[in-house]
Design brief:
Number of helices: 4
Shape: rod-shaped
Largest sheet: 2 strands, antiparallel
Strand order of the largest sheet: 1-2
Protein name: IS66 family insertion sequence element accessory protein TnpB
Helix content: 40-55%
Oligomer: single chain
Number of strands: 4
Length: about 120
């Protein structure tokens, strides 16, 4: 027996009328886990464990499909959204200064003047 598969209890495997062996899902998953860690080719691993290669390849394919489905469900997705711009209110940006003075900036070219005014007020107080 190969050391890559942990020892398990002996199990009686059922066969169908055509003589095909039915491998329990737990054993199938243990074999697939061992294969992923073995570094062997699929054909060599299947031969070593007495599994017909087409059967083993089918198990691998089903596991990969299940993983892809899980990734698709939990992965990022895109959703179309519509952004509505708020109507520009009168006055743009308003600043209320201590003492009740209020400053309204409604054009970008006013920012340098407002910055200079605030700097002046900061030093004068």
């Amino acid at each position: 027996m190969n050391d890559s598969i942990p020892p398990t209890e002996l199990t009686i495997l059922k066969a169908d009328t055509a003589g095909r062996v039915r491998t329990p899902i737990e054993q199938r998953n243990a074999l697939l886990d061992a294969f992923e860690q073995s570094g062997m080719s699929g054909a060599a691993f299947a031969k070593l464990h007495g599994i017909k290669y087409p059967t083993f390849a089918y198990w691998r394919k089903r596991r990969e499909e299940a993983r892809n489905e899980d990734d698709a469900r939990s992965g990022p997705f895109f959703e179309e959204i519509e952004i509505q711009r708020a109507a520009a209110g009168p006055g743009g940006l308003g600043i209320e200064l201590p003492g009740g003075a209020r400053l309204v900036i409604d054009r970008a070219d006013q920012f340098p003047m407002v910055a200079a005014l605030l700097k002046y007020l900061e030093h004068s107080c």
